[in-house]
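task queued by scheduler; priority normal; single chain, no ligands, no partner chains; default sampling; output format set to structure tokens
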Amino acid sequence: MSDKKGRRPTVIISGVGITLFTLLFGFTNTTTGLPWALVTRFCSGAFNGVVAAVKAIVSDISDDTNQAKAMVVISSAFSVGMTVGPALGGALAEPVRQYSDSFQEGAIRNFLEEFPYFLPSFVISALSGIATMIAYCKLPETRIKHKYTVLEEEHSADSELSSASPLQSDGRHGDTQHAAKLVSVHYNVERDNVQFSSGAKVEHDQGDNDDMEETDNDSGINNDDHGLSQGSDQSLDISELKDSENVATAPTGGLWTRVRKGSTSLRKSGVTALKTSRMWTMLKSSEVRKVVCLYSIFSFAVIGSDEIYSLWLSTQPDKGGLGFSERNIGISLAVLSTIMLISQLLFVSKLEQKIGSLELFYIGCIIIILAITLFPALASVTNDILLWTLLVALQGPFRLFVGSCMVMCALFINNSVERANVGAVNGLAVSATALTRAASPSISGSLFAWSIGNGAASIGFPLDEHFIFYLFGIVFFLSLCLCITIPEHVKRKKIM
């Protein structure tokens, strides 16, 4: 949508949808139940086109010298939202139970008791509404209108011609009463101020089962206003030909044959439309497939490692964890998030400009792999000061380069297509990675629980508490291997 209608309407419509369905989610209770929660969350997710559109905006307003810096700002803002959002939602959920002394008996208390998740939904919906209003008032349209490719235009014109022409495959086997005709059709297609001309010549032999020959008739194309080629004495208007060929084109064999042939024609038209669509064209590009797969695989590992980090911190030392309290876990997450935010803003864009985006991803993956495989060793440290020092020393670079690699993935996605398709490829990438992000927490949590239980007890190393960290190390290594296959030109934007 953002490539065709614009970035601004995409952001605004997405914001309105998120605002509305987030508010409706707040009416989830024991009466409405799980179906209401699922429907409202699904609808909210369906309107979540903001991320893809904002990344496309970054591509529109930046060049190769500052795109990384702009993407770092977007990534940092997203990280802040991911940190503050859950904390805010947890603080406001079930307010009567958490802050019973603050609510006196009355309608408000009764309402919040009946809908315990309305308050966080209302606050988040209000913030989303404010952001949408700001976008409506201040956000300019950044999309540059691009001309459609010649291939797309010629396909559209050919489809119109074939639907108007009576010389279908059924007609050439009928009892036609006409002699061979030579039809030359000249047409102009005008879209977005771009004109294309094409010609088609069709030969139809009487009483003959030979295949109809279709050839390009470039020499017969006229640029005058008559619309018909003068290359043959038998050239005639397409509408007249359609009227004269009704007998030849009438399908034979009864109603079922007609329905079957009609459904076959419809299916072929649908397949043709799919194969010539912009999305299919993008998917035929190997570099688009590679960068989307890279983003999905890397996101799977990042979400999974974040999931097990808190579990690992809270797990007792005899099970391979650090035995942190909830307070210490909160402090750890706050400190590391602050380090990641500041370091991203200060260093990522400079590193990208100095060593290159692909090279930064290579280095980042290597450091991430080394750090995550060393995490389990911290369980053997007994000194608290040394433990915190080593934890920050490992988690700091880990989170810095995780953020850096995510930014590089966003650059690869933007640079893998022409500017006219940036919105579409970002939508494709967000949709693909949504699947891996949804699956990763449950898979990683289940494997971690198994490794500190059955795995550690019956099998031992490396299928004990080390297993999940080594597994994600392998996934990060696969991301590195895939990135090595991506061509160098994804470092730079495509001109068109």
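post-processing summary
- Residues 147-252 have pLDDT under 50 and may be disordered.
- Residues 56 and 422 are 6 Å apart (CA to CA).
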